[in-house]
């Protein structure tokens, strides 16, 4: 069973509850208490835009620190986190913003259109590049640490624990296991890799290993208990099965 939310927007009914229920935990979309939100994260970096506030997936958009966006609605997810809707299937976590002026132009709302203007496009590109640089720096800082199955850091990691730890530092929640992480972002060609892309080995839908591409044909990963976190070059003898762009 699926529910239509208007136009080409559908959700699976099994992940919802009756909005008319008396259950106080029911999450509902409501009118926002702020008309504009300003990204308040680490200067030089941005926050991710998600397609929903419950069971969200990344849209691939990054909003730069200090930028302001019109808020059309707000909602609280099942964990009690407040989210802002920026129009359509575009949501951000309210905790990474501060209330802005209601005089900001509505044209600053997020759009997939190429007509947003060169300034907005440039800001987004710069934010993505900065986020990738931070990911590479954070991953590099883990080199030499131990591999421990199930470890999430910061002193030891397994492969997906390393990815979860590094990307959480730039505001991205990619999930804890390779099976979840591979569902984030967009698939990219191995000939078109960029720093910050994820490399997976094994089945494209259920991989057993993951690493972080850092440029120059190299990646950082929590390899094995005997190797720990290391940097390696992509090899034909251990070639990734799929690459995903999440920044």
UniProtKB/TrEMBL annotation:
Domain of life of the native organism: Bacteria
Matches recorded under Pfam families: NLPC_P60 (PF00877)
Domain NlpC/P60 stretches: 129-247
Biological-process GO terms, alphabetical: proteolysis
Keyword set, alphabetical order: Hydrolase, Protease, Thiol protease
UniProt KW Protease keyword: yes
The UniProt record lists the keyword Protease: yes
Location of the region described as Disordered in the Swiss-Prot/TrEMBL record: 104-125
GO molecular function annotations of the record: cysteine-type peptidase activity
Signal peptide: none
Coiled-coil regions listed in the entry: none
UniProt similarity note: Belongs to the peptidase C40 family.
Protein name: C40 family peptidase
């Amino acid at each position: 069973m699926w529910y239509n939310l208007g136009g080409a927007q559908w959700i699976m009914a099994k992940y919802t509850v009756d909005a008319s229920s008396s259950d106080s935990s029911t999450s509902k979309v409501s009118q926002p208490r702020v008309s504009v939100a300003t990204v308040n994260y680490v200067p030089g970096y941005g926050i991710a835009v998600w397609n929903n506030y419950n069971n969200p997936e990344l849209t691939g958009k990054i909003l730069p620190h200090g930028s302001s966006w019109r808020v059309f609605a707000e909602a609280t997810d099942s964990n009690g986190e407040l989210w802002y809707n920026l129009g359509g299937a575009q949501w951000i976590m309210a905790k990474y913003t501060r209330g802005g002026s209601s005089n900001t132009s509505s044209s600053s709302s997020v759009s997939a259109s190429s007509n947003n203007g060169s300034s907005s496009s440039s800001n987004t590109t710069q934010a993505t590049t900065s986020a990738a640089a931070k990911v590479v720096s954070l991953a590099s800082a883990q080199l030499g640490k131990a591999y421990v199955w199930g470890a999430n850091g910061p002193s030891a990691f397994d492969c997906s624990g390393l990815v979860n730890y590094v990307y959480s530092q730039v505001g991205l929640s990619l999930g804890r296991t390779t099976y979840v992480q591979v569902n984030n972002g967009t698939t990219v060609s191995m000939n078109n890799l960029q720093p910050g892309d994820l490399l997976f080995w094994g089945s494209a839908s259920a991989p057993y290993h993951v690493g972080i591409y850092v440029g120059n044909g190299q990646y950082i990963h929590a390899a094995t208990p005997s190797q720990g976190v290391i940097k390696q070059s992509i090899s034909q003898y251990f070639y990734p099965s799929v690459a995903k762009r999440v920044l």
